[in-house]
From TrEMBL:
Gene3D superfamilies assigned: P-loop containing nucleotide triphosphate hydrolases
GO molecular function: ATP binding; dethiobiotin synthase activity; magnesium ion binding
CDD domains xrefs: DTBS
Species of provenance: Lachancea nothofagi CBS 11611
InterPro entries attached to this UniProt entry: DTB_synth_BioD, P-loop_NTPase
Protein name: LANO_0H25048g1_1
Length: 223
């Protein structure tokens, strides 16, 4: 079986989606792609963040450039209003031609699963379905959520939306980011969420080693 494509989405902004993506890239010796990047007027971009993280680790992934790179720190739909030369179409997003199917590919979405992407009001869910339809490789979804207060509503709504969209079989599970909160993890599991890892904030190399140890191998996840 070909290695999977793992689509990383978040329950909210600033939940640690890019850092979690970098951890997955390291743990699974995966490559990385951010299809649509926004906010470049005030940020270096997530691809560069992943590159810098991996530069101090053992695995340097192949980093595929974004298909679209927009300046404003907004959802792609709104960011296009400031750069009218762009008109994003779902059909524009093709998995990198030179992405080696032997190695997993971590694909980081722009924001959460309901973030508007195109002027036709396609959302991230539509982008995931587009990838599923365009490849024979297994496509799985990882939901990154905060560990603390407020995460229950956001996480359960995200999972409910994915279920309603018929993507429940593609959901690999959730990664909770931040100080460990056993109560929230337990409650989410009572509602059917699969918590595949709980990753604390990292401020040192030892913290990163600990975070990587929390993430299961792909084989343990059935991939």
């Amino acid at each position: 079986m070909s290695s999977p494509i793992v689509f990383v989405t978040g329950t909210d902004t600033d939940v640690g989606k890019t850092f979690t993506s970098a951890l997955l890239v390291q743990k699974w010796s995966a490559n990385y792609w951010k299809p649509a990047q926004t906010g470049l007027e005030s940020d270096q971009g997530d691809t560069e963040t992943v590159r810098q993280f991996c530069a101090s680790q053992q695995h340097m992934p192949q980093l595929f450039p974004p298909r679209y790179a927009l300046q404003k720190p907004l959802c792609p739909l709104e960011a296009m209003e400031f750069e009218p030369e762009y008109d994003i179409q779902l059909s524009d997003f093709r998995l990198p031609d030179d992405a080696d199917a032997v190695e997993p590919l971590v694909v980081e979405g722009a924001g959460g699963i309901y973030v508007p992407i195109t002027k036709k009001l396609h959302i991230t869910t539509d982008l995931v379905n587009h990838f599923i339809a365009s490849t024979d490789r297994p496509v799985k979804i990882v939901v990154v959520a905060r560990s603390g207060l407020g995460t229950l509503n956001h996480t359960l709504l995200t999972l409910e939306h994915l279920n309603r969209a018929g993507l429940q079989q593609h959901v690999l599970g959730c990664i909770l980011n931040g100080p460990k909160n056993p109560g929230n993890a337990s409650t989410l599991e009572k509602y059917g969420a699969k918590i595949i890892a709980q990753v604390d904030h990292c401020s040192s190399e030892n913290d990163i080693v600990e975070a990587l140890s929390e993430i299961p191998e792909l084989a343990a996840l059935g991939l």
